[in-house]
Design brief:
Blueprint: H1 5-22, H2 43-66, H3 71-93, H4 96-105, H5 112-117, H6 129-136, H7 146-157, H8 160-170, H9 178-181, H10 185-195, H11 197-202, H12 205-215, H13 221-227, H14 231-235, H15 244-260, H16 264-281, H17 288-299, H18 305-328, H19 334-345, H20 352-367, H21 369-384, H22 393-408, H23 415-418, H24 423-437, H25 442-462, E1 483-490, E2 496-508, E3 511-520, E4 529-535, E5 541-542, E6 565-573, E7 581-590, E8 601-603, E9 613-620
Antiparallel strand pairs: 1-2, 1-8, 2-3, 3-6, 4-5, 4-7, 7-9
Length: 622
């Protein structure tokens, strides 16, 4: 009765995809306290995503038929995973690299890089990480220090020249963000590691394929095909959640080596260390030991209580080792961090019974509805014939783990992202089921994979799931001038930075309104400040407050590009007793650390070098 379930899984997946695109019911995406926002992409992007999914599935089918070798398909899958992540980011933000950079560096995004740049490392602030969690807020309110420590290590190791070049490359994406402009070149450059999360996620195909060969009994290459089609891996790029599957698979692979091979203590210790490093990065991986423990108990029927206890102890030592080393270095205590994290996490209120189902549904939706149907059908098929069939250890361990999590009420929404590290395990369980339901039937697996491609397109095309608190750089303000000018502003060594090509000024009630037209000469790394002093007909000088170009839109010099015209406007207040007559404007630019007084030089044809340019006269009536 179960042989048709692969077809059922494919049909159910397509129906769910259609329902999501049409937004048939918002309860498919949450409710009662939290819900994924629905935002349908333009038709062009939907067609681009559909075309990419079709090409990927067709290419995978061709490779499956063409060669029995796994390497070509692993490369195809890894490339597909990266492409889908980039397409998803570009579809939402218009520029994939802009999306990867801003999501990496914003607090409302992934948060870990932002935290690394807002911790006083020199003063040892990281040693009291619970206080840091409380101070930073946002996503960092319940995240341990592992990822910020990694970013800090990258900063210290990056060569200055490479860091400077990477900063120049990334600067246009947030050239107006003064918080980021205060970063060192190494802090800018370390963000590249986070931007590469789609690559780290794609590498999961390697241990996934190895585990599929070991445990499923189906064509292991289907696991690789399926990984690129996991919607969460593409939709949540470049959050750290997309890299956690690599951690969970590595821990499982090491555990399996320990259970099957010689020197089990070495492999179990290594599996524990990988798990410990994962929890040091994010407490979301705390359920991983539960799955691994259940799997070990279900996998080896001959495992005695004494041996299970010994192996579990070795694994636990490995899992606690990274935390022990952190503590030995003067870092925070694991239980102090857990207390703060759980206080925040469990403080999020969700109606219990609705979310018992919704947490499981949300995870299955983002991991793959078709694979989830296959997995559960496989478990049911085994149960009917359990006396004559070997038990599916991986499928049962995953089921028991998920049941424990959903009924414990410890989840608080977004399980499609938070439990992403379980997604590749679902693929393994689905292949384990496929070998039972349709042994040797490669087409059934491809049919489900094709349906998953439709679900991928539907989720990426309809739900806007990751954003930031950063705004894109504004467009260059349009100039509004009437009088030509020619003045080049330079560094102390004479290198030209930008030029003033026009200006206009007029009296308005109690102030003079100054319009300027600039043109960039080179890409700049310094946000220079502009000042204009008023010089009255009686010789009195009225100093003006410094300003940043662009007004409210703020278009600092770090955004200026060679050959691009930039308009700017400044309001220069006049004193109440301003005498009538011709007033002059002394325009200067500050902020160069190499200049003695911070002022840029000014080169005007036919005049000696100066540090200001006089504009005028401007008539102030009596």
């Amino acid at each position: 009765m179960f042989r048709h379930w692969p077809l059922v899984a494919a049909v159910v997946t397509v129906l769910v995809a259609a329902a999501l695109l049409a937004d048939v019911t918002p309860y498919l995406r949450g409710g009662y306290g939290w819900r994924w926002p629905y935002h349908l992409l333009p038709t062009g992007w939907l067609l681009a995503l559909a075309a990419a999914a079709a090409v990927y599935v067709a290419g995978a089918a061709w490779l499956l038929r063409r060669t029995p070798r796994a390497a070509p398909l692993l490369v195809w899958s890894a490339a597909g995973a990266v492409v889908f992540a980039l397409l998803a980011a570009a579809a939402r933000e218009g520029d994939a690299l802009y999306a990867l950079f801003t999501r990496t560096t914003a607090l409302l995004g992934t948060g870990q890089h932002w935290a690394s740049t807002h911790v006083d490392w020199a003063a040892g602030e990281w040693r009291d990480w619970p206080a840091v969690m409380a101070r930073l807020g946002g996503h960092m309110s319940n995240v341990p220090p592992g990822a910020p420590l990694l970013y800090r290590g990258i900063e210290l190791l990056l060569p200055v020249g490479l860091a400077e070049n990477l900063r120049r490359w990334l600067l246009p994406y947030q050239c107006h963000n003064f918080d980021l402009l205060s970063y060192t070149p190494q802090q800018w450059a370390s963000a590249v590691f986070g931007m590469l999360m789609p690559v780290w996620s794609a590498l999961a195909v390697l241990p996934l394929h190895a585990l599929a060969r070991r445990f499923t009994g189906a064509d292991a290459r289907l696991a690789a095909v399926g990984w690129a089609l996991v919607p969460a891996a593409a939709a949540f790029a470049p959050s750290w959640s997309t890299a956690y599957p690599l951690i969970s698979l590595a821990a499982l692979w090491l555990l399996a080596r320990g259970l099957d091979g010689t020197r089990p203590a070495v492999w179990l210790l290594a599996s524990g260390v990988v798990t410990g490093l994962g929890t040091l990065i994010n407490f979301a991986l705390i359920p991983l030991p539960l799955f691994l423990g259940l799997f070990a108990l279900l996998y080896d029927r001959r495992l005695s209580a004494a041996r299970a206890g010994w192996l579990g102890g070795v694994y636990t030592v490995g899992a606690l080792l990274p935390w022990a080393l952190l503590r030995a270095a003067g870092g925070p205590h694991l239980f102090d961090l857990l207390t703060v994290s759980m206080r925040f996490h469990l403080g999020l209120d969700r109606p219990y019974w609705f979310w018992v189902g919704m947490h499981f549904w949300d995870w299955a939706l983002w991991a793959g509805v078709g694979w989830a149907v296959l997995w559960l059908a496989g478990v049911a098929a085994w149960w009917r014939q359990r006396a004559a069939q070997p038990r599916p250890a991986l499928s049962l361990a995953l089921l028991l783990t998920l049941l424990a999590l959903v009924f414990s009420g410890t989840a608080r929404g977004e399980t499609g992202r938070v439990w992403l590290f379980f997604s590749p395990l679902l693929l393994l369980a689905a292949l384990e089921a496929l070998a039972r339901l349709a042994p040797g039937d490669q087409r059934s697996g491809l049919r489900v994979a094709a349906a998953q491609g439709a679900l991928l397109v539907a989720l990426l095309g309809s739900l806007d799931v990751i954003g930031t608190n950063f705004a894109p750089p504004p467009a260059p303000p349009a100039p509004a001038v009437a009088q030509a000018a020619e003045a080049i502003f330079t560094r102390p060594d004479g290198a030209p930075l930008f030029r003033l090509t026009g200006w206009a000024a007029a009296f308005e009630t109690d102030h003079i309104r100054l319009h300027l037209r600039w043109e960039g000469e080179t890409a700049l790394l310094t946000p220079y400040w502009f000042t204009a002093a008023l010089v009255g007909p009686d010789g009195r000088v009225i100093a003006g407050a410094p300003w940043q170009p662009g007004g409210e839109a703020r278009y600092p010099t770090t955004c200026w590009q060679p050959g691009v015209e930039i308009g700017d406007t400044a309001v220069l207040p006049l004193p109440p007793d301003a005498p009538p007559g011709d007033w002059w404007i002394s325009l200067a630019v500050y902020g160069d650390p190499a200049a003695p007084d911070g002022r840029l030089g000014v080169a005007i044809p036919g005049q000696p070098p100066d540090t200001q340019i006089g504009l005028g006269p401007v008539r102030v009536p009596g």
